[in-house]
Amino acid sequence: MMPSTPAFTTRLSEAARTVEASLEALLSDKAAPGEIARPARLMAAMRHAALGGGKRLRPFLTIEAARLLGAEGQGPLRAGCAVELLHCYSLVHDDLPSMDDDDLRRGRPTVHKAYDEATAILVGDALQTLAFEVLADPATDTDPAIRSDLVLGLARASGLGGMVGGQLLDLSAEGRYGPAEMGEADVRLLQMMKTGAILTFSVEAGAILGRADSAARQSLVEYGRALGAAFQVADDILDREASAEALGKRTGKDQEKGKATLVDLLGMEGARRECRQLVEKAHASLERFGVGADTLREAVRFVVERQV
Amino acid sequence: MMPSTPAFTTRLSEAARTVEASLEALLSDKAAPGEIARPARLMAAMRHAALGGGKRLRPFLTIEAARLLGAEGQGPLRAGCAVELLHCYSLVHDDLPSMDDDDLRRGRPTVHKAYDEATAILVGDALQTLAFEVLADPATDTDPAIRSDLVLGLARASGLGGMVGGQLLDLSAEGRYGPAEMGEADVRLLQMMKTGAILTFSVEAGAILGRADSAARQSLVEYGRALGAAFQVADDILDREASAEALGKRTGKDQEKGKATLVDLLGMEGARRECRQLVEKAHASLERFGVGADTLREAVRFVVERQV
């Protein structure tokens, strides 16, 4: 596959810069209207968790899907930040000692290492709440129907029937709660829930803000699903291949914990083939949008080729 | 003060029964539309956390405030359940070993004892998400402006500038993060954030669903604030007085951890006086509503006299 074009790379890093600035503003020490006060230690730990890192892939998808439909500015930016806050909360809680027990994240100490475990739990809790606060705020969209659609979508993608449910399945897959027999369908369900649902919603949020009709929204959801699945297969391949140095975190972790991945089930060649098929599927879902969707087309290639 | 009237007690237990049934339905193993699947272990642990206990004071306040304004049925019931789910999430996380480290809650093992720590973290996370999912669902109100108003209110009351922020202040008050000098203003701020904000929102949610005009909404918010403050002073008094048997949990915990309470700051007699003043203040806030608000008047007396 081709490397990303300079235009794409510029757009991605431009979006990351805007998202960073917006997250910084959302995580300031100053209380928003309706809040009582923001404790300094909590805010510092939340900034540690959410600022200064990451490709900001999820907000990028929200921003680009909205732009495809003619929506730009604060709305898609804020919705993208909400998804990113949700994502950051999940990382903070996943890193906890009783979960994946990770000391490093993006080469820096995880929140429970830099602060303490209680603070890390509260940081995750408050990042989740803030995601919903941002979506429900009239600054995100003047139409309350759009705002509650966003809230409902994020909640369904991230809660018991989405990301959190997927994390529980992931812990079960380690054999913590009895013998874990993971077939291909189980691995796919786990991945769709744990990482796919939020990636799909990142795209759908752009469709909601762009007032997509139901056919366009459905196409974008299908694009998001294919991208999410491709992301996960690529991650499984990466986990097997990459060196610890290149990733800044421990690798081969799934193997170490005895968890089945798609590479185990399909073989390395099968996994690579599936990756290519998913890229094609994602591209096919964008057909109706013409050249305007080229950035989203590149995004799915970027996702399967990312090195970090 | 007088004991609760039979009419009040009936209403309270009637509401608790309806809330219990509604929570049971919300926490079934069957995935809602837009959710992928609900893992059985997660659902069982969530039911352990949220079902079979508690006075359901918060939903009762939502239901009664809405009823005062002529709103009844699914809307107030669902909004009340959302507040209760939020409350239950906070209890599950507060009980964790790195937080308050409690083994018992309402005389039953806490979630991390009955299951494990990772499951308890995920249970809290998913209960929080479900609270927002319930509020944003059209089944709660057909008007999306009402739904996003509810989401925004709950988020502000429960996040970094409300309940979670208050929990961080509470941990700081134990001296975990350096010497803790708690003056009266600090203790009041902590209590307003940790428990007051959600109690206030419980009432405000009823006002929102009942389409209160801004004056009526403000009166109900003031009632909620007075009730929340009274709840906390009563809790401080109870914590000092009650026996472990009567409460089914460890008591004198604040003293044990060296945390200042309003009883320390005002003395037992001063705390009792403040309680009475807050009851009067709450009653005064309801003046405009006449006899229709008698249940809410009794609720604040109930709150200061509760034995469990």
Report on this model:
The structure is a homodimer of 308-residue chains. With 308 residues, chain A is mainly alpha-helical. The first copy, chain A, has a single domain (6-305), classed as Farnesyl Diphosphate Synthase (Orthogonal Bundle), CATH 1.10.600. Helices cover 69% and strands 1% of the residues of chain A. The first copy, chain A, contains 14 helices and two strands, in the order ααααββαααααααααα. Chain A has a two-stranded antiparallel sheet with strand order 1-2. In chain A, a hairpin with a 2-residue loop joins β1 and β2. In chain A, α1 packs across α3 (57-68), α9 crosses α10 (214-241) and α13 (262-285) runs antiparallel to α14 (294-305). Chain A is globular. The two termini of chain A are 17 Å apart. At the A-B interface, α2, α6, α7, α8 and α9 of A face α2, α6, α7, α8 and α9 of B.
Percent of residues of chain A in beta strands?
under 5%
- What number is the mean pLDDT of chain A? 93
CATH superfamily of chain A: Farnesyl Diphosphate Synthase
Tally the helices of chain A.
Answer: 14
Strand line-up of the largest beta sheet of chain A: 1-2
Radius of gyration of chain A over alpha carbons? 19 Å
Taken from the alpha-carbon principal axes, the silhouette of chain A is globular
First-last Cα distance of chain A: 17 Å
Protein chain pair with the most extensive contact, residues per chain: A-B, 65 and 65 residues
The sequence of SSEs of chain A as H and E is HHHHEEHHHHHHHHHH
Number of domains of chain A: 1
Task: Let me know the number of strands of chain A.
Answer: 2
Q: Which structural class is indicated by helix and strand composition of chain A?
A: mainly alpha
Q: Any idea of the CATH topology of chain A?
A: Farnesyl Diphosphate Synthase
Highest-level CATH class of chain A: Mainly Alpha
Helix content of chain A: 55-70%
What oligomerization state is this entry in?
homodimer
Largest sheet of chain A: 2 strands, antiparallel
